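ok so for the tutorial part 2 we go from a plain amino acid sequence to predicted structure tokens. step 1 is just haveing the sequence, like this:
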Amino acid sequence: MKTVTITGGSAEIRALLDQARDEDVVVLMDDGSEFLLSAIDDFDHEIAQTRRNEKLMTLLDERAAQTQTIPLEEVKRRLGFGD
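step 2 — the prediction. this is what the tokens look like for a chain of 83 residues:
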């Protein structure tokens, strides 16, 4: 994802951005291209950044593929918690 900073800008662009604060906006170009303009919050941005972290995603995929589990009683025993 690329971040573009807009300083000033045309009234039309400002109006589109103001609309996108309230609801997603589909922008249609003359050539038929379509773009989605959507406001993001910090959490959405953090999720997008996390998904681009290849090492983390590989680790999560590997962990999701693991089928072996340790019963709760065994965990308690290993950690020294009594009954």
